[in-house]
Design goal:
Arp2/3 complex 21 kDa subunit ARPC3, mainly alpha, two-stranded antiparallel sheet
Length: 192
């Protein structure tokens, strides 16, 4: 019998039962993973294609809903502080010049939370993790495309902010699920 709201994998359970310092280190590591993945990019207009989606989904799947969302918020705080963690080494100040990606950045928080929540509630089962990653992606794209539509119109937002990313994001979902399933079998040492 599966108990709802329990961490989904050995890794997630061991992280949830770790000391606050370990959780804080994981959050910082998650934010740095997202920042590193962001630098792997293919230039598109008006929104570049990066590996951010992969990292955001992975952090949500492995850390769970709350810590996953906190890791993404930490990443956004780093950008707000002026660190060059956004696409192309930009900081949050660039959002005033090129706001097209703002909705996607907000969507990252929702994506990590939703992916983590569904993974938790499905106890890390394969199809649950797949559904979690897909649902996280849907949240991310819904918020990103909605904000982009507000800026440039719905038709252009779908044409430039959704369609070019579908195949790549499906591949990133597959990769995030595969890595989460592999790493999810590991657990942190009990002394942490």
């Amino acid at each position: 019998m599966t108990i709802l709201n329990q961490p989904s994998t050995a890794f997630t359970r061991s992280l949830a039962n770790s000391h606050l310092a370990v959780k804080a280190a994981a959050v910082v590591f998650g934010s740095l993973l997202i920042a590193a993945a962001t630098q792997i990019e293919v230039p598109f207009f008006p929104v570049p294609m990066t590996m951010q989606t992969f990292a955001v989904l992975l952090v949500g799947l492995l850390f769970g809903a709350r810590l996953g969302a906190v890791a993404v918020l930490t990443y956004l705080a780093e950008a707000t502080l002026g660190l060059p963690v956004l696409s192309g080494g930009a900081s949050m100040a660039m959002m005033f010049v090129k706001p097209a990606t703002a909705g996607y950045l907000v969507g990252f928080v929702g994506a990590a939370f939703v992916a983590g929540l569904i993974a938790e509630r499905t106890a890390g089962r394969f199809w649950g993790v797949v559904a979690a990653a897909f649902a996280g992606e849907v949240v991310l794209m819904a918020l990103g495309v909605a904000f982009l539509a507000w800026l440039i119109g719905a038709e252009k937002a779908v044409t430039f902010g959704l369609i070019p990313f579908v195949l790549g994001d499906l591949l990133k979902i597959v990769l995030a699920v595969a890595v989460a399933r592999g790493v999810g079998r590991l657990s942190l040492p009990g002394a942490l």
